[in-house]
Amino acid sequence: MIEVAHLTKRYTGRTAVSDISFTVGRGEIVGLLGPNGAGKSTTMRILACYLAATSGTVRVAGLDVFRQSDDVRRRIGYMPENNPLHHDMRVREYLKFRARLKGLTRKHSRERVDVVTEQCGLTEVSRRIIGQLSKGYRQRVGLADALVHEPELIILDEPTIGLDPNQIRAVRQLIKGLGDSHTVLISTHILPEAEMTCHRVVIMYEGKILAADTPENLQRLMSSNSQIIAEIAAPEDELQACWTEMAEVEQFDVSAGEGDYYRCALTPRDGLDLRPHIFALVRERGWSLRELTRSRHSLEDIYVRVTRPDEEEEG
Amino acid sequence: MRTWWTLTRRELAGFFLSLTGYIIIAAAVFMMGYSFVVLLVNLQQEATPMPVTEVFYNTQFFWLILLLTTPVITMRLFAHEKFSGTFETLMTTPVSDLQVVLAKFAAAMVFYGVMWLPLLPCLLIVRHYTHDTGALDPGTVGSTYLGILLLGGLFVSLGCCASALTRSQGIAAMISLVFGASVFMLAYIADQLPAPETWQGHVLACFTLFDQMHDFVRGVVDTRPVVLLVSLTLFFLFLTLRIVESRRWK
Questions:
Q1: Residues of chain B found within 8 Å of residue A79, distances taken between Cβ atoms
Q2: Alpha-helical regions (H) of A204-274
C-alpha cells in the first residue's frame, strides 16, 4: 500500500528525514514510533501530499505522491497533528463540507456523514459547534473527517495526544476496528500504544529508521538486557555473595534502601527471567522481599539500545 | 467547479460566522455615511452638473475605504488557515491549489461587493430629493460599481498575496496595507507628473488610477484601465498561486 524508498526531506539548514525506506502492506496497522522531532510528522505530511520530498520516491497504492497527487489524496484520509478543525462550524456541517471537498456527491456525502457520525460516536453532538466541544469529541470529529470518503489508507498523526485515559482507550478501539477494512499508519511516541494497536512498528530517530518489526520482536530484543529490581531485607554481604554465586546473574548492583532493605539491580544472562530464582532464594533463606519488578523499557531505552552500535563505531 | 463552489461558500460563511465581517461592514458603512454627509454639505453650497456618483467620488472617501478595508478583508484568507493548521487538512484533500486561490479570491470579492451595497441607498436618497433623474443614471451607477469592483479586485488580490505569505493575520494586514499604499502612492506620483516624454513616463502614466476611477464615476468605461486592472489582478493572483504552491518545492 505504501512504498517509501530512500526518502529524504531537507528544510533549510536541517535534515528532517534522511534516506528512509519502508513498506506497508494492505490491511496492516503500522505505527511510526519516535520522540518529538524524529521526522514522523514530516514523513506523514509527504505521504499525505502536503509537502514534497527532497529526494526519493513515495508511492501510495502504486501511485506517485508528487506526480499523481490528486489520485493519491482521494485514497488517503489524513488527520494532522493537533487535529486542526474549523471551530466556527457545526459538526455535521463540517463533515459534509469535508465530504464534498473530497469529491463525494451531495447524496453520497449525506449517507457517509451519517455512517461516520455513528461510527465515531458523534450522533449526540452532531449539531454542536466544534469550538465548544471537548477535546475528545474534537478528536473524534477529526477521525470522522479522515474516514468520511472511505479511504484505502488512513494516516493519523498522534491521534491520542492530549486525551484522558478513557478517551485514549476509545480512540484505540476505533483504530483497531479500522484495521479490518483499511490500511492504517499512525504515529505516536508512546510505546505501549504502539504495542496495543499496531501489527508492526517502525522506530524513527533523528530522521532515520532504527528498527522496523512487530512489537513482540522488539520487546524480545529489549528484554534481553532488561534489569530486575529486587528490594530485599538481608545483610548486605550475604546478598553480594548470593548474586556472585548465582550463574544466571551477569551483573549486579546493591545499594542501601529504606530501613533494612537493600535495593539490588540485577542484569540477567541471555535474557533469562530471574524473578522465580530470586523468589526461591528469598524463601529459602527466610529473608523478606518488598519489591520484585522487571524494569520496563521506556522508549528512551530503546533509542539508546538501538543507537548504541553507532556510538561504539564512532567511539 | 463543484469543489470551487463548496470552498467559496465555506469562505463566505467564514466572513459572516465571525465578528470581523460585521465589523468591517460597520466601519465601511460609517465611512460611507460620513461621506454622504460631506456630499450633502457640498451639494447645499452650489448647484453642480456632476452626477451624484462623481460628487461622492470627489469626497475622497472612496480611497480611504478601499485602502483600509481590503487588508482587513483579505488578511484571514490564508494566514488564519495556516495558523490554525486547517490549511494542511485543506491541501490534503483532492482540491487543486488554483481552486483554493480562486475560491478565496471570489469569496473576498463577494464580501467586498456586499460591503459597498450601502452606498446605493445613499445615492438614491440624493436623487430622490434633487428631483433630477439625470443626477443618477443606472449606467453611471453601473460604471461606478464596475470601477469599485475592478479597483477592489486589484487590492483584494494584493491582499491574497500578502495573506499567503505569512501565518499571522496582523502581518498579512500590514503587508497588504503597505502594498496598497504603494500602489496608491504610485498613482499619486503618476497624477502629479507633467505630461510624459520618456517611455518610463508613459508606463507610469498608465497608473493614474485617480483619473481612471474618475472616468468610471462619470459613466465613462475606457477599456484601457479595465485591461490594466484585470491583468494586474490576474498577475497578483498568479503570484498568490505560486506562493501557495511553494510549500511543495521549498
A1: 89
A2: 215-223, 236-245
